[in-house]
Backbone:
């Protein structure tokens, strides 16, 4: 048994041997690339949760879609519901519409999270308000797998105002940007639907990024980091 397996076993006695082996085989995420955006594979992700508390609430469903070579790959989509213990339905059910019966019939969280990480591979992740998705997924993987999510995130909620400074949206949400760019939404507050429309927004933003000489994931992430620091100093 190698050191990684020993670490997993110590932290996660309920994982099966097969699940531990799958954890071991997960690719280690690479640093953000300096290659052009339209040569990259990205995974756009959205999660639905029991609520907004980063320390107490749980991930209920994960939706994801792939952007590869500058296009959305509709054949590569991920959508799963995680099985959770019964909870009295809260206000979040009115938003995402996942009924307790669906949650009870969901799949083992460890299996869903392993499947998701195998789907992601070493690709960077995109999300709108990525900090929330990243922290919820990170905690879910720690609790269910003893695994630290290694993939870097790029936040579309920061990328949009950075690339479109002429648009004045105070505290803009996803719906504001979708309306601004004329994107049609068939369904909202569903993980897979939100991931898909976020991917459409990402392609628009990537096109603007290329025109602004920000044609790589590494450049985008560094510029977003600088933009966030400027915003913090301006407060």
Residues:
């Amino acid at each position: 048994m190698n050191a990684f397996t020993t670490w997993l076993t110590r932290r996660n006695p309920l994982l099966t041997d097969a699940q531990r082996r799958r954890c071991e085989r997960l690719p280690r995420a690479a640093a953000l690339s300096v290659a052009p955006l339209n040569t990259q594979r990205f995974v756009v992700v959205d999660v639905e949760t029991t609520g907004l508390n980063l320390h107490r609430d749980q991930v209920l469903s994960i939706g994801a879609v792939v952007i590869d070579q500058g296009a959305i790959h509709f054949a590569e989509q991920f959508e799963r519901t995680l099985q959770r213990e019964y909870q009295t339905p809260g206000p979040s059910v009115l938003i995402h519409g996942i009924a307790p019966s669906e949650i009870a019939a969901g799949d083992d969280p460890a299996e869903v999270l392993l499947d998701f990480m195998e789907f992601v591979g070493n690709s960077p992740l995109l999300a709108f308000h990525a900090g929330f998705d990243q922290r919820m997924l990170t905690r879910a993987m720690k609790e269910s797998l003893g695994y630290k999510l290694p993939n870097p995130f790029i936040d579309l909620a920061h990328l949009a105002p950075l690339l479109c400074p002429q648009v004045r949206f105070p505290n803009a949400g996803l719906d504001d940007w979708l309306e601004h760019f004329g994107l049609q939404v068939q369904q909202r507050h569903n993980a897979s639907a939100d991931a898909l429309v976020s991917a459409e927004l990402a392609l628009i933003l990537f096109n603007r990024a290329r025109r602004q000489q920000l044609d790589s994931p590494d450049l985008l992430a560094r510029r977003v980091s600088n933009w966030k620091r400027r915003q913090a100093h301006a407060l």
The longest strand covers residues 71-81. The CA atoms of residues 82 and 151 lie 21 Å apart.
